[in-house]
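Batch job 17 of 40 flagged for manual review because the log was empty.
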Amino acid sequence: MATIRQPWQWALLIVLLAGLFTLPAYGSQSAVALVNRTGIAIIAVQGLFLLTGLTGQISLGQAAFMTTGGYISALLVNNLGWSFFAALPLAALGAGLVGLFFGLPSLRVKGFYLVMATLAAQFIIPWFTRNAFRDVLNGAQGLNVAVPTLFGFEFNTPQRYLHLTLSVLVLTTIVAHNVSRSRLGRAFIAIRDNDLAAEVLGVNLFKYKLQSFFLAAVYAGLAGSLAAHQLRHINSETFNLIDSILFMGMLVIGGLGSNLGPFFGAIVVELLIEIATLLGPLFSDILPATAYGAVQALRPLFFGVALMLFLIFEPRGLAYRWHLIKAAWRLRPFSH
């Protein structure tokens, strides 16, 4: 049952982690920033993996729960003087409780109706941050967020912040993988495959669905807190509906039911966004009339085309293709 079975796999994993943690020593500023964004996106998508990939509950409110985590962390650090490392788990817990509330309709509705119920969070939470407690939340202007510090060491550059992002990512990956292998994960999968059969077998649908929503929102809260402190600012538009759609697209591209899905999906989508950013000036030179919105138009265009192609040609995602490649490699040279 070991996840990493061979010594060479351990060696490869250690080399990969060492390469990522030492990236600031040899990588460019843009490469470090890209890895930071990708790491935070993976954490958010891992929450969707537990909710949608394992439990089959579709949500379009992940970015709203990131907003919740970001605001809670900013308030604890700015107003109460908490350390970022103490505020981070509280931000995750607060986002989890909000996610629990929006998961309540999951017992009565499913499919399209559940999507609409979770979509409500994407409108209610930003409205609340803009219009409620203006003296504390500063309305639409949002909050400036303090830089994380640890024993006087400030994570005030992308190179330093990368170590923080990767450390949290390693922990969330271990937790998500172990949840998928536990009794809780098996109950999630039973609900996804056939909720009626799962209930007949004694699985408490309401309990496990709420736990799934809670875990997904906890992951979103972690990602939101990390992103807010990296950007050093948060408002109601920092994480919007487009981000929720991007996260769902990342999971579809990577593979819904696989632990590797969030990694593959986030890496592919972030690379597409980076390519669109690099190609923007080129399109501006070719078509000067479109110079103003070239970059903004290319990003959703690339994402939409990629998502459409994956749904047509690789509906199970890149993780499924990776498993097929590994199986073929083990069976070589006996192709049959």
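Reviewer: the log was empty due to a logging misconfiguration, but the result itself is present. The mean pLDDT is 89. Unflagging and moving on to job 18.
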